[in-house]
Amino acid sequence: MKSGILLLCLAAFAACHSPKADKRLAKAFKENKNGWVYVHLEGAPAVIGYQHGYLLANEIDTAMQATAYYLAHETKKDWAFYRACARNFLWDKLDREYKDEINGMVAGLQDKGLHYDSLDLTAYNATEELAFYYVPQLMDKVNPGSGNNKAPGNCSAFIATGSYTKDGKIVIGHNNWTEYIIGQHWNVIADIVPEKGNHIMMDCMPGFIHSGDDFVITGNGLLITETTITQFKGFDTAGIPEFERARKVAQYANSIDDAIAIFTKGNNGGYANDWLLGDTKTNEVAKLELGLKDYRVWRSKDTGMIGSNFPSDEKLIKEETTFNINDATTSPNARKRRMEQLVLVDMKGKLDAATGQQIEADHYDALDNITANNRCVICGHIDEDVKGCSEWDLAPYYPMGAVQGKVTTAALAGKMQFWAHMGHPCGEDFIGEKFYKAHPEYAWQSKYLKDMKAWPWTLFTATAPAQP
Hints:
By secondary structure, the chain is an alpha+beta fold. It has helices at about 1-15, 45-55, 55-75, 80-90, 95-110, 120-125, 125-140, 180-185, 240-250, 255-265, 315-320, 330-345, 355-360, 410-415, 430-440; strands at about 30-35, 35-45, 155-160, 170-180, 190-195, 200-205, 215-220, 220-230, 275-280, 285-290, 295-300, 305, 365, 370, 400-410, 415-420, 430, 450, 460.
């Protein structure tokens, strides 16, 4: 009898002192839903970080392992190199609150037995700007002309308002194109109530303090997305990391002007994008094309704007890219043609959440006027049929394409809601065994990439802040 009481007492003691009982977790929770991991985080920076690291420890560990493995193969730089970048020119540029959030995440991970540190998390958050902007620049310094300046030409997006939408209010959509080995992990819906600033809901990779691909709605009515400027060249190690600037816009911008000011201040050129911005308070939308040396803004209360990795400003194109605006066979230009047809013509005055989902799932190749699975359609499938579309630097087949999609409207965003689809927005699954059998040269990815299932469109709603 005494031994039973002792066991009960020990169990009670363990429960009281278990990390699960940590008061930092009181306002946080996660749930799995249709391929997504929804996580609610709330509190001071270190608390939000701890919640994130503890609740998503397994997801962070798996995603970081896959990322390090992929980067070592594709950039020929090991994880020690990326950690050194974080130590040498990233960490000291971060504001105190984001250092605290990252350190909190480290504490949460360590409480789950995972021994990552702040340099790991910083390098991981900066994956895009380091691998595809800094590394090519470094290569050019060692061997002029050797750097691959073909920064990622991925993602398709639109934003529209006024006569272009069904109710005259803003509609915004985005699908994420990336390598499946990475993109399968872009499956977190982060609902963040920070101690200061805006309530944020965004998609992201587990362990990211920013969205990364980007799709964000905020409690004060800002809507944010982007597509990269492909074939861009430029990076400034003295600047502020892009991932911090993107997070600050989401958390602290109260207007389109605020967003532009934050993005451009201390700009390091990393992850150069065409940012599509909307303010539901004014019903205005804007496109910020942000390079390193150059940027330009277009804005209107009656327009449709698109992104598919093409730059538009002549000065930026000439000074900071090698992009050929006249080559119709490239994926950015082919998708531009199709997006313009859909957003500006076919669906003008009809755009809403449902038609936005149709756009994200579209498979029409406007280059050759056929329905296809290739890199020139909005719902890209580079792992399948390449018929009807060429490209300037990719092999005919590669396991990448549209890995997920998101759409929202002003009405939905006012309730902190958006629709999200994990996997190809068209609903087609990627089956690794079938692909590797046909293309054994990519079997090295099978260590971390098995299958990528397409789930149904799902409506996510942010959780109201907990009472003090």
